Structures are given as C-alpha cells and as structure tokens.
C-alpha cells in the first residue's frame, strides 16, 4: 500500500474505482512519490539489475524471460518500468528494450540513472492500457510490479501486450501475491492474521478531502489472474512464487523476512502469446 504523507492525510477506504480514475490517481501518485520511491528502494533495486520483487529474485538467476544469452538482439517492452533498472539490465544482455511508464517523474529518474547509457533504453511515457506501438513490435514483454496491480481492467492491458507482441512472444509480469489481500499490510506479527476476505475484489483506495482517489490498488484472486491471462490471449507457462531468501534482511513496506518465511509475497506469471 502507499506510504505517502499528505498535508491532509488521505483517507483509506474500499470502493469501486474506474479505469480513468485509477489511471489518474496512479499518474499523480507516482509523480509525487517517485523521488521517495527511488531514494527508499533504489539501492535494493540496483541501477541495472532486474529484480522481480521485494524477495530480491533476480532475472539473472531466474531466467524467466529465457537465458541471458537468448536475449541478445530481441525487442523487449518493459511495462511500468519506473526508473528502468530492468531495462538497463536487458540492454546489457544485448536486448533492445523500451521502458514504458505513465509517470513522467519516474522516467526522469531513468534519465538521471542512465546518464550516457540512456540511448540503449528508449523511454516512453504512456498508459499500459493503450500502448503506442504497432502490432507485432516486440519479441518479449515484462513488468516487475508495473501497472498491472494498479489498473481496473488488466485484460485490456494483456490484450494490448498481445497485440504488440510477435507470435510466440513471452509476457512475464510480477504482482503482489493475491493471498496477501486478506492480511493487513504490515511487516510484523500484526500482518499475519487474516483481516479481510480474500474474495472481496473491492479496490483499496486512498482519497483526498473531495473524495477523489489519489492512490488505487486493484485486487484479483489467483483464479481471476489466470482467467485474465487466458482472456488476453495468452497461455500460462508457469506461476512462480519466490520464497524469501536467507540473505535478504530488508523490509519493503509490508514485505518482510518474517512474513516472507510464512506467506507468499509475489506472484510472477510466465505467459506465452497464443
Ligand atoms: C511499484 S512501481 C514498479 C516500478 C519498477 N518496475 C520497479 O520495479 O521499481 C509501479 C510502476 O508502474 C507505473 N504504472 C502504474 N500504473 C501504470 C499504467 N496504467 N501504465 C503504465 N505504468 C503504470 C508507475 O508509474 C510505477 O512506475
């Protein structure tokens, strides 16, 4: 969940949020919070590593996109790229990545970190629900916690990814593990007791004094996510639930070594374009 401190603290609630309201809230929230996000998590993410989530699973060891050697020369789209750390790793493997994000400020951090390497990674400011690319432009698409948890209509995103991928292309994305929806978003023992229904899909919304959403997260159950993947035109190849490794002592919001040893924190969907 969000960690932003507001002048007047936004009120957290559960209510419906349309695609347009969710997109508006995400753009605003990530523009306002990109500096804090990169300052809090930039060291863990590394400037040019590809980390799938707070557990620290690294694509260099996981190989979910294929072997590092097989990435050479491929056109890769990263969705919700933030400061494009993953894309820089992809470029280092010889791929041709495009890092897309709807937050201008996140992409400015990509420029800051990338420095003279930036030409190796093309940056695009756009919404994942309407990708500004021709059909069949990419061999691979990926996303580490980018966009998918924040959109009201993930099938629309998947259809767009399907459209811009070439036949047989992989689409690999990580999201908050759906099981966590039932637990308070706390790293300590208070985050270990079920407090809400796993089956309640009502979005988590933080709203300002006028009632406008300033942060939105959408919940899908594991079954919903599988059905969404299929509805988007993909075949599910694997569902990876990274375990918390012994070396990782770092908390990230509600993700912690304590909870990580007991419940899954991240779900990574490995899909192939049908
Ligand atoms: C949790 S951050 C992850 C960023 C990066 N992948 C990382 O691991 O640091 C989520 C990112 O998704 C972006 N995002 C949220 N909704 C989006 C949308 N509808 N379209 C494109 N990007 C979106 C945000 O701006 C933010 O940069």
From TrEMBL:
Q: In which domain of life is the source organism classified?
A: Bacteria
Q: Where is the composition biased (Basic and acidic residues)?
A: 12-24
The UniProt GO MF terms for this protein read:
methyltransferase activity
Which keywords does this chain's UniProt record carry?
Methyltransferase, Transferase
Region of interest: Disordered: 1-25
**Which InterPro entries does the record associate with it?**
Methyltransf_11, Methyltransf_Superfamily, SAM-dependent_MTases_sf
* GO BP annotations listed: methylation
Q: Name one Pfam family in it.
A: Methyltransf_11
Report domain Methyltransferase type positions: 77-173
Record PANTHER family: METHYLTRANSFERASE, N6-ADENOSINE-METHYLTRANSFERASE TMT1A
Q: What name does UniProt use for this protein?
A: SAM-dependent methyltransferase
């Amino acid at each position: 969940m969000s960690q932003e401190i507001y002048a007047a603290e936004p009120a957290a609630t559960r209510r419906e949020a349309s695609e347009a309201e969710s997109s508006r809230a995400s753009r605003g929230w990530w523009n306002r919070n990109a500096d804090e996000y990169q300052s809090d998590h930039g060291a863990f993410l590394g400037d040019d590593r590809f980390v799938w989530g707070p557990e620290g699973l690294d694509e260099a060891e996981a190989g979910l996109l294929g072997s590092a050697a097989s990435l050479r020369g491929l056109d890769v789209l990263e969705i919700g790229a933030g400061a494009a750390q993953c894309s820089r790793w992809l470029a280092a493997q010889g791929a041709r990545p495009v890092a897309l994000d709807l937050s201008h400020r996140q992409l400015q951090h990509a420029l800051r970190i990338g420095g003279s390497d930036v030409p190796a990674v093309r940056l695009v400011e756009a919404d994942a629900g309407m990708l500004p690319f021709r059909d069949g432009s990419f061999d691979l698409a990926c996303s580490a916690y980018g966009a998918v948890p924040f959109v009201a209509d993930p099938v629309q995103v998947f259809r767009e990814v399907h459209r811009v991928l070439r036949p047989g292309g992989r689409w690999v994305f990580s999201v908050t593990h759906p099981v966590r929806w039932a637990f308070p978003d706390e790293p300590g023992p208070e985050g270990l007791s079920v407090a809400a229904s796993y089956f309640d899909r009502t979005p988590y919304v933080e709203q300002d004094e006028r009632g406008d959403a300033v942060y939105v997260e959408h919940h899908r159950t594991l079954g919903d996510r599988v059905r969404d993947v299929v509805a988007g035109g993909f075949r599910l190849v694997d569902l990876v639930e990274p375990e918390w490794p012994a070396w990782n002592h770092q908390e990230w919001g509600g993700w912690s070594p304590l909870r990580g040893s007991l419940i899954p924190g991240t779900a990574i969907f490995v899909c192939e374009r049908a």
